[in-house]
Amino acid sequence: MTAETHAVPDDRAVKARLRAMWAMGDYPAVATATIPALGARLVGVTGIRAGDRVLDVAAGAGNAAIPAAKVGAHVTACDLTPELLAAGREAARRQSVHVDWREADAEALPFTDDQFDAVISCVGVMFAPRHQASAAEMVRVCRPGGRIGLLSWTPDGFIGQLLAAMKPYAPAPPPGAQPPALWGQEEHVRSLLGDRVDDFTMHRETVTVDRFKRPEDFRDFFRDRYGPVMAVYRAVADDPDRLAALDHAVIEVARRHGRSSERLVMDWEYLLINARVRDR
User: Is the pTM of this model over 0.90?
Assistant: First the structure.
């Protein structure tokens, strides 16, 4: 069975829109400033070791792929956005590790069945619009007995609440798209992977982010650098009232999640999943 057999219907406009969104701003700077340790956390929980064949799906600039390569794994990092892959290549070069960077759609991966020992995604595949298609592809390319490792923002955590607060101002999602933060719900991920996996473990954790002094500083940083936030701001840029309301919504989410009176210290919740692909 080949990757072409599993390809989703051609929706080039949708994928072009996603590429453009993630090419906005500077996602590598956002990841470095806020979640630099999450990729290594996922690699450790998944049990990736030297010699493993690893695929990082929706890898961005390699926040999980590079830590996997550092433990000696043979890593392929794929993403829909060429600009993020270019940033990843440069980051890997600076850190003297080898990663194979491939442009690819998470919903139609260009790899053969059973090709990898571990397939992972760190707050990446959750943003692909059709969850079941992406989950099926990740399982397909992972060998029986291999591991699926996922780290996703939860709906009730900070990023999930930020996405919810921006939804009234965002462009309509494409037909069939599901909210990204559903990947942070245990029952949703169980339903996506179904009986194709066993030895399924999951638990919630938080990462502390103390990069910002005030909620307004967070707003400015994400408005200018994080593609999903930038896209919503651009959608309302010509409507002063909606722009002001969006500003208020983003600032209030940050304010509610702060736990310090002196600076903005937040705990961002994520769901960490590790599962074994069953024999076919």
Answer: yes
